[in-house]
Structures are given as C-alpha cells and as structure tokens.
Write a structure and sequence with these properties.
Elements (H helix, E strand, L loop, with lengths): L1 H10 L4 E10 L9 E4 L4 E3 L4 H17 L5 E6 L11 E9 L4 H12 L4 E6 L6 E3 L6 E3 L10 E6 L5 E5 L3 H10 L5 E5 L14 E3 L4 H6 L6 E4 L4 H14 L4 E4 L3 H13 L4 H5 L1 E2 L12 H28 L6
Parallel strand pairs: 10-11, 10-13, 11-12, 13-14, 14-15
Antiparallel strand pairs: 1-2, 1-5, 2-3, 4-5, 6-7, 6-9, 8-9
Helix pairs in contact: 1-3, 4-9
Protein name: Xanthine dehydrogenase accessory protein XdhC
Length: 327
Amino acid sequence: MNWLAAIPLRLAQGPLVLVTVAGVRGSAPREAGASMLVGPDFVEDTIGGGHLEWEAIAEARARLLTAHLTPALRHFPLAASLGQCCGGVVWLAFETLLPEDLTVWQQRAASNADGIPSTRRLSGTARCCEWSGEEQPGRLQLPAAGSEHDWQMLQPVRPPTFCLSVHGAGHVGRALVQILAPLAIRLRWCDARAELLADAPAGVECVGESDPLEAVMGAPAGSSHVVLTHDHALDLALSEAILTRGDFHWFGLIGSQSKRTRFRQELARRGFTPGQIARMQTPIGIEGIRDKAPQAIAIAVAAQILQQRERALAALRDTATCPRHSG
C-alpha cells in the first residue's frame, strides 16, 4: 500500500495517474490489485517492471499531457510484442487523479493506516472511483464487445496485518525502515529522539514518545519487535518490556553472542523463565552474511522479518480455513 500512502503527498503537488493491475490471466509480474503512481517526473511503487511497466508509464504520462480524465482499461498480452515471455495477459486500469480529489484520498489513506479495510469501484463511465466501507473480493468485469467504457473493477484496499515496531533510529534502524517501508507491513518506527524520525518514508508510523517504553505498550497485540538502539541499557529495558507483555509474534535484538549471554543472564536475574527468554532472538539476521555495514545488516534482518511475516500470514490463513465446531 505504498502507493496509497503516497497519493496525498504527491496529489498536493498536481495531477497524477494511478495505474492498477485490474485483472490477470496466466503468469504475470504482479497480482491483480497491485498499483503504481505516475507523475510528470516520478513513479511510486511498481506493477512489475519490464516493458509492461515502461509502456504503462508512457501511456500514463500521455494522459497527463492531454488532460485525459475518463478512466481507461488496457489489455496487454505478455508476449514477444512486449519483449516479455511470461505468457499471461494483464489488464491495466488508468485513472487520472486531480488535486481536487485530495481530501478523499487523505481520508482513505488515514483509514487504511488505522487498520480499516475498504473496497473501491472504478468503471469506465465515471471519472472518480467510488468507495465502500466493506471489504469485497477483487473482480474485473470486462467491456462488452464494441463498448470501450462498459467495464468495472473492484479493488480491495486491505491494511497490512503484519505489524512491526522498529526500536531505534540509528544507522541500522534507518536502513531497515527504508527497506521495509514499500512492503505490505504496518511499520512503526520508534525513537525518543523524534527529530530523527522527521524524514520517515510515506506510510511509516512514527512513534517519538519521550519514554521509549511507551512505544512497546502502544504496539498492537500480536506485533513483532526489533530492538537496535544506540544504548545497551535501553535495549535491555525494551527487551524486558516486550517480554513482560508477552503477546508478540516475534522479537529480535541486535547484538553479539556476548551481548546475548549478558542479556539472558540479566533477564533471568529479573525473574524471567527460560521459556520466556528463549523467545528473544539474538543475534538477528539470516545466517551466512558477515558484512557489518549498516545496510548489509539491515538486509539480513529484513530477510528474517519477511520470513516471520510469511509465517504470520500462513497462521492467519490456517485460522481462516479451519472448520469451526459447535459445542
């Protein structure tokens, strides 16, 4: 949902075009519902790259030059004509957004950030999309033969279900936030030095509490946490607060093996059980990467976080498909 968070910021500067993967048949670079923003001199997010995206950007910018306001649906076979060999078919919806639409998009971006799902309907017969407060399945109604505008797209706009709190705005924390911000994660960036959060990417929730422990208490139940502050004493205090809450999905702490030993001993002294302490993962990052540059550490940790996100989403899917039995 990086595109949704970016719309209010970009739309305040002038018109832009929202390009959405309205439908897919066969193999394609992105799934139905993926979107990107195109302006005269910028692109936010992606519909999969390659020649398909290049053609989409060119058409979007042509719409801006000609002030074309009616939504359009385009059909792209992913074959030799596009220099791509996916073999599938993609339908792209092109939608011009105007600064006069800014208030609506601000409200929708804010609702999504608050965890409220919705669905938008776009058709070839109306300039603007319509919104519903209910989440509906995505669907594309193709135009009837001989009718260019007789089509309709339903796009679910779902808030991310995986929430991660990044505690620390130092070199690694900053690099990690930059990597994760474009992904489908509810990202909370926490540091008492609020000025360090001023340039957070669009869609990132900045938590500049004067008491860093308040950032732990304010996290939704089931969240994940990664602690990488500038202060070992603060790392320990945050670790204690996270373990005390106990209702987290995953908790990682940056550090060496010696730091791990010291923290485990101190947490045991403070009354935590071996089972509780074992839930704190440190060191962090996928194995096999020895580079200690902040960006390299951030990449290794980001990969581990994505693994955790896959596990959390799989658990949600299993819960949703598990049959219920009445007592």
